[in-house]
Automatic annotation (TrEMBL):
Keywords: DNA-binding, Transcription, Transcription regulation
SMART domains associated with the record: HTH_MARR (SM00347)
Superkingdom, natural source: Bacteria
Organism for this UniProt entry: Pseudarcicella hirudinis
GO molecular function: DNA binding; DNA-binding transcription factor activity
Name of this protein: DNA-binding transcriptional regulator, MarR family
Domain HTH marR-type: 2-139
Keyword Transcription attributed: yes
Length: 151
């Protein structure tokens, strides 16, 4: 494969990541959150309820930092804490999906529409290639994250 083409794709991938961070920071500010809080809230939406310890493991944050994160979300009525029925020492974090969606759907509406139109402009075969790239790139990022976290 052409090395220049590989460099171009790598550069585009980096630019995509940087631009994504900037956009998500802007969305977070409009929602009165920090960029990282916004993304961690996304973990809760994606994964559903979990313990504070599970959220700590998922994010790489200390348990103290997770407590502060949950405090901030709870003040905005975006999550609710409850004790696990089988072990009251465990705190379950439940996302308030309705409130979260009410907050974010308007901020992402135009972006989502434009993205869907962009995807629709590609052939089915091209979409499969894009999907394969993202799936494999995510695997590589997860492997790298796991390697760095285990050292």
């Amino acid at each position: 494969m052409d090395n220049d083409l590989i460099k171009t794709i790598r550069k585009q991938s980096q630019l995509y990541a940087y631009t994504s961070i900037q956009m998500h920071e802007a969305v977070a500010r409009k929602a009165s959150l920090s960029g990282t809080d916004h993304k961690y809230l996304g973990f809760l939406i994606e994964k559903g309820q979990m313990t504070a310890g599970e959220l700590s493991s998922l994010t790489g944050l200390t348990t103290g930092a997770v407590t502060g994160l949950i405090d901030r979300f709870e003040k905005k009525n975006l999550v609710k804490r409850r004790f696990a029925e089988d072990d009251r020492r465990k705190v379950i974090i439940e996302p308030n999906t309705e409130n979260i969606m009410t907050l974010f759907v308007p901020l992402y509406k135009e972006f989502r529409n434009k993205t869907e139109n962009l995807i629709a402009s590609f052939s089915e075969e091209e979409i499969r290639v894009i999907d394969a790239y993202f799936s494999k790139a995510i695997e590589i990022m997860n492997e790298t994250t796991n390697d760095l976290n285990s050292k």
